Amino acid sequence: MATFETNKESLEDLLRDIKKGKIQLPDFQRGWIWDHNHIRDLLVSVGRSFPIGTVMLLEAGGEIRFETRPVEGVEDEVPKNQLPEKLILDGQQRLTSLTQVISLEEPVYARTSKRKKVKRHYYFNIMKAVEAPEALDEALIAVDENRKRYTKFGRDVELDLSTTELECRQLYFPCSKIMDPYDWEGVFYEVAGDDGQTYREFRKQVLAPLRNYQIPVIQLKKEVSKEAVCLVFEKVNTGGVQLTVFELVTASYAAEGYNLRADWYGSKVHAGDSRKERLEKAPLLKGIEATAFLQGISLLHTHDLSSAKAGRVGKQVPPVSAKRADILRLPVAAWASWADELEAGFRKVAVFLRKQGFYNARELPYRPQLVPLAAVVTRLGYDRWLEPQIYEKLTQWFWSGVLGELYGSAVETRIANDYEDLLTWIEGGMPPRTVKESSFHVDRLDTLRSRLSAAYKGINALVSREGARDWFYKISVEDLYAEGYDLDIHHIFPVAWCKKQEPPVSSERYQSILNKTPISKKANLKMGGKTPSQYISQLQKETELNDAQMNQLLESHFLSSSLLRRNAFDDFIEKRRQCLGQLVETAMGKPVIPVGAPDHGSGN
Fold first, then answer.
1. How far apart are CA 176 and CA 114, in angstroms?
2. pLDDT tens per residue across span 465-485
3. What is the pTM of this model?
4. Which long-range contacts (CB under 8 A, 24 or more apart) does 395-399 make?
């Protein structure tokens, strides 16, 4: 059965149905955002009978129940409780622009090229349009909301069209009268004099093409599924900002009477009591996205469906999924069943992350990895995740994903696999694919230079977690983070020192993680551009530590104090590579791949 049909509809009929509310917008459509130049170009194209693209509509009344709203500008004209017959999927900006310019008396809200909001009325200069129809763009002008145009510096009125008589005498036709020019024409012929013939030519050359303009329309039938409609919308809406799955689900739930946006972001009535705000009270959950939360709901809901139909075979058993199409199918009941429990699960994940050495959201290696972790913790219930054997497995899985760098992109399948695999492993089954597939090549330490890298963030968190202490304050880096001290990841052999060597140390070497560690700003200022032996001596003096005590401070960062005191850069880097390699090995629960050895794993 065909899911769509294609035909042509007159612009006049489309605009009439928009004003009556027979054609409306699904609520997930973004607001009208076109600028003045786009509006002018559109009008000129229609006036010259040029194509302006296809419009796509969806029949209302099928399986899909989106919350709807009238096109901007016609809200007061649409009868209350008017149900739409069709919804605009593609063509919103064009149809809204034409509606506001051609069908409404109010000024059009537009933006200048500098994105300044303005109000405009649009006119055709009748004489110019007739004399040079091929340059219709030069005949189309805009004036302000008072129907006036001013000189460059705004001191004097350059053009006044504030009354119908002024419009007629100066031969300016208001675009708002294109579809219904008769009253305007009655005034015009009273005052036009010898200009009547010019207007009649304008009516023939410009108004007639505008009024008779035909637009190709693709109409999707109401039997089309919701996810298909959303997919189609995104494919055709290349000129706008891509919709998030949250916006699409919000529109779907609104049609069933549930305000998902108010639940997640809060409302004016319940300001400060949104789910997002409650979650973000944990610093590690700052910036949590609604889409990630919906993925967690999807894992839990599809797991329920899969368990309920476990007796079936083959494709009859629905898979556990966090994919977009499955999120779009989530019923309101799934959100109601799991949202509160998953919220608690994410808060427990924040505790887990804190125990792993992370302190704020920007340090997190992979946000998507939190989704299966939160869903697993939620599914386990109570505080089972803290049981030693379970906690150990969650920890090994987490670091396998981080240090194996497996959550970088296209992770929807991995999220679902890890959710199921972790639950199976916890109950005595085989380890997750992420644990088995992960690998870490020691050579990777030499190329970790960007603090945005997941493995870079992970290794620094491990150094902190394992008890690294600051070289000035002498207390743990963890405690300094907790107290809000200004910490950062700084060079161990200062850049200035590296550049002064003969030959100079290459930036690739001194910028790697092997030459960096988390310390306080105070300690870093003491280091300056000195040699390590010099700044160690100064720090030791100011902190009143003996050699052994200072060495312990240094070595808490998994480095060799003796090589550092001798300024032995090459040997120091080699030794630190070994130390950090052992740290990674312990975290992942498997041997790292030695320098120069081939990597047969899939994690790097």
1. 25
2. 999 999 999 999 888 887 777
3. 0.74
4. 395/356, 395/587, 396/435, 396/587, 396/588, 396/589, 397/422, 397/425, 397/431, 397/432, 397/434, 397/435, 398/352, 398/356, 398/369, 398/373, 399/356, 399/458, 399/462, 399/587, 399/588, 399/589
